[in-house]
Amino acid sequence: MMGRCLGLGALGVVACLSLPGCFSNNRHQGARLYAEACAGCHGDAGQGLGRLIPPLAGADYLALHRDELPCLLRRGMHGPMTVNGVLYNQVMPAARVDDKQLSPARLTNLLNYVENNWGNHAAPRTIQEVERQLTACPTVGE
Amino acid sequence: MSNRFWLAPALAAALLTACSGPSADQAARLPILGERDVRPNPNGGPADTIFATAPAFAAVDQAGQPVTNQTFAGRAYITDFFFATCPGICPKMNGALLSVFKPYATDPRVAFVSFTIDPAHDSLPVLDDYAQRLGVTDAKRWHFVTTGHSATARDTVYGLAKGFFTAAQPDKEAPGGFAHNGTFALVDDQGHVRGLYDSLDANEVARLQKELPVLLAEIAERHPKATAAK
């Protein structure tokens, strides 16, 4: 009995030690992807640039178009769009890092980062959810 | 032991004096960039050094006003090269230039010029819209200029970019169809390029913010009357 408890305890300790180890590499992936693919235009704190580049911080667009965002990142965007009542009209290239499009897992981390920083709050996305939204997205420019 | 403590400052002082030479009491100066030419003096005296100057340009800004080198005679100006539909580095570049511009938004001692490298697309209304969207309301303070509609307008602006130590050329692989790097050039009141700064590097942008007042102080020294009048 005593031995079994100790065994379970040891297993728990091992699990506790190894789990963060498994995730630690990707823990800040969203922030890293943002810095690499997005911050140049949208700013280090999602502030945008005048009426040229829409902000992400406090942007109503994120909640209003939540389901479309994986496609928007995958394919890029052009033409007029309204964010917080301001009309923007620029070209946004597809989000790419190292000249590769972002996997559903990376898109999930990136979106979770953007949607929960700089005053933004949204329900966390799952990879399955993002994958589903990507299949609904027309395959243009891929 | 105590002698050694004396030695270091004394040596430093000696070095400083030796290096700064006759202009020891002058403020720090920015270098003049570009190839220089040495011309023998026909009268047999010491040769003249001819410093490189920024290329001559004739462009039109977002308000429809002509902009040439003469527009900035006696003043400093800062240049960059961009295009309005640029999805690559332009937002970061012009965002950085905006941060340099803001403290000088109403200061006539320095002006800002952004040349479009896509004159076929960036008409005056497009340039005006871009400026307004960036938050620049006075075209006299920050000119967004085009080299015009002629078939050679594009070659003209590429040549200018080279003259201002930056690179711009069409490239199908680059985002938006043009490859360029985001170098800012700081030009003095006599048309000499005095500083080049990589707009994508925050340290370089900070260096421009530090060096601009150094150049303005030098220009004020050259034009004591103009400064006194203000």
UniProtKB/TrEMBL annotation, chain A:
It comes from the Bacteria. The keyword Membrane does not apply. Residues 25-118 form the Cytochrome c domain. InterPro entries: Cyt_c-like_dom, Cyt_c-like_dom_sf, Cytochrome_c-type_DH. One of its GO terms (molecular function) is heme binding. Transmembrane segments: none annotated. The keyword Nucleus does not apply. Keywords: Heme, Iron, Metal-binding. This is Cytochrome c domain-containing protein.
TrEMBL record, chain B:
Pfam families: SCO1-SenC. Residues 1-24 form the signal peptide. Keywords: Copper, Disulfide bond, Metal-binding, Signal. It comes from the Bacteria. The keyword Isomerase does not apply. Disulfide bonds join C86-C90. The keyword Magnesium does not apply. Cu cation binds at C86, C90, H180. InterPro entries: SCO1/SenC, Thioredoxin-like_sf. GO terms for molecular function: metal ion binding. Belongs to the SCO1/2 family. This is Electron transporter SenC. It comes from Hymenobacter coccineus.
